[in-house]
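[Discussion] Sanity-checking designs against the backbone

I'm trying to build intuition for which residues belong where. Below is a structure token string of 202 positions. I'd appreciate it if someone posts a full sequence so I can compare it with mine line by line.
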């Protein structure tokens, strides 16, 4: 009888384990904070508009490529916030480091000029064990000035080789966002200095 009870208990435990949902993993594109580097700030703060992302990846799950035409959302691997917010938060932090000024989005301007930055993601491609890719159109425009410069509009592609696993894939996207931020920041420094920069080469 005792052996039967033990068998029943074991079977129940296995059944409950089988019914339990798989663990959920959450990811962010905002990299861990590093010591701030001393950098000459640009003359004016910036504001970063909300970021648009393609509908195919605008879901809670990580969406990965599975061959030439296939795409698969991964139910157990999810973004901690909407993907557009994740990209915007990471880009804002990277731009603040590269420009040496704060993102003043949503705060009163007090009559001070600002550099308005917009970013529209055209492709957000994830291939585990191969690459993470972001293609985005972005623009710079100075606000709060009379007779200012024309807006600068560019398209950039950031592609990072990644290793196996989803941690490596997300890290690749973090690096891609940082690469975009560095290109935008380089153009922004020239733009705020009154020059007409060329769009950065990929």
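Best answer:
Here's mine. Compare freely.
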């Amino acid at each position: 009888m005792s052996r039967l009870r033990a068998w029943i208990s074991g079977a129940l435990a296995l059944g409950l384990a089988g019914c339990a949902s798989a663990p959920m993993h959450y990811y962010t594109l905002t990299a861990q904070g590093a010591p701030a580097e001393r950098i000459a700030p640009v003359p004016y703060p910036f504001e970063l508009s909300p970021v648009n992302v393609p509908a195919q990846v605008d879901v809670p799950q990580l969406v990965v490529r599975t061959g030439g035409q296939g795409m698969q959302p991964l139910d157990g691997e999810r973004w901690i916030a909407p993907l557009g917010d994740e990209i915007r938060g990471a880009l804002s932090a990277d731009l603040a480091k590269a420009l040496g000024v704060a993102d003043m989005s949503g705060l009163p301007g007090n009559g001070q000029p600002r550099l308005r930055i917009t970013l529209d993601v055209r492709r957000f491609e994830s291939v585990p064990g191969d690459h993470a890719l972001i293609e985005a159109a972005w623009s710079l425009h100075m606000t709060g000035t009379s007779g200012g410069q024309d807006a600068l509009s560019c398209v950039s592609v950031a592609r990072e080789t990644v290793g196996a696993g989803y941690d490596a894939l997300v890290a690749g996207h973090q690096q891609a966002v940082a690469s975009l931020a560095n290109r935008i920041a380089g153009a922004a420094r020239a733009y705020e200095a009154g020059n007409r920069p060329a769009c950065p080469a990929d």
